[in-house]
Amino acid sequence: MSDVTTELGDQSENPGGSTSNLGGHAKSPASPVTLETVYDAAPSRWLWLLKWLLAIPHYLILGFLWTAFVIVTVIAFFAILITGTYPRALFDFNVGVLRWSWRVAYYAYGTLGTDRYPPFTLADVPDYPARLDITHPEHLSRGLVLVKWWLLVLPQLFVVALIAGGSAATGGLAGLLAFYAGVALLFTGRYPRGMYDLNVGLHRWVMRVVAYGTLLTDVYPPYRLDQGPREP
Questions:
Q1: Which among 19, 44, 197, 211 could disulfide-bond with 216, CB atoms 3.0 to 4.6 Å apart, if both were Cys?
Q2: Is pLDDT at 5 greater than 90 in this prediction?
Q3: Is 85 helix (H, G, I), strand (E, B) or coil?
Q4: SS3 for 9-34, per residue?
Q5: How far apart are CA 189 and CA 8, in angstroms?
Q6: Which residue spans within the chain are E strands per DSSP?
Q7: How many angstroms separate the CA atoms of 202 and 210, rounded?
Q8: Could you tell me where the Polar residues compositional bias lies (predicted)?
């Protein structure tokens, strides 16, 4: 119980894992979540209108994968509680599900950022224009695992609900931006860069929260919007 108290004290004093610097900038741990993209200024004007149909095979498979994701997360919870580590095979599977989901969201109505069809794989695809990676932690807190997924992450969940409407794929502000981008493509043939950068930044925020809330990291997601294709 002392482990829980100590960890909670650290989080409550500094929920973002950062140390205030009165001189200006705050220091925070480097995020283990890396979400990066390649900007395409001129995807197809009309293909986005059909992507709901083209992405159906992915949605069907992801339905099964997310069921497995929940089961694996429960198993990982007990593994972390007992050993303080996230079993590598389970970790890689769950990161793969997030990676697959991100590629589909980027292709379809989460971003509309590419016309290249997403691959059917959990593995990283280095040349695909939307990539996600999460560093496997050597050790995770046994105390935090009891509270971070429902209590500590709660303030961030309100932000995620606004950003993604409860979905990391197509809802909320990110989905609205993707729709406006589709309209812009239809009439101008170009994806507005500012709209794109903001959309990717919103997804980056969501993915950091998802990684923390599903026990993949102990690094609390910063309240910071890092826009653009590349990590800061």
A1: 211
A2: no
A3: coil
A4: HHHHHCCCCCECCCCCCCECCCCCEE
A5: 50
A6: 33-37, 130-134
A7: 12
A8: 1-22
30-39, 68-77, 156-165, 173-182: the lowest-pLDDT one: 156-165
Asked whether residue 209 carries a pLDDT value surpassing 90, the answer given is yes
Q: Name the residue type at position 129.
A: P
Q: What pTM was computed for the model?
A: 0.86
What is the residue type of 104?
V
Secondary structure letter of residue 55 according to DSSP: T
Assign 226 a pLDDT band (cuts: 50, 70, 90): very high
Residue with the bigger pLDDT between 227 and 19: it is 227
Residue 99 burial (10 A CB sphere; 0-12, 13-18, 19+) = buried
190, exposed or middle or buried, with CB in 10 Å at 0-12, 13-18, 19+? middle
All residues at 6 or more sequence positions from 147 whose CB lies less than 8 Å from its CB, including other chains: 4, 8
For residue 145, give the amino acid letter: V
Largest CA distance in the chain: 60
Domain boundaries along the sequence of the chain: 42-213
Nearest residue to 77 (alpha-carbon basis) of 89, 64, 65, 90: 90
List the beta bridge partners of residue 34: 133
Residues with Cβ < 8 Å from 168, sequence gap 6 or more?
Answer: 101, 102, 105, 110, 160, 203, 206, 207, 210
Distance set, CA 198 to CA 93, 160, 163, 219 (Å) = 29, 14, 11, 23
pLDDT > 60? residue 8: no
**Rounded distance between C-alpha atoms, residue 58 and residue 149, angstroms:** 27
d(CA 5, CA 26): 25
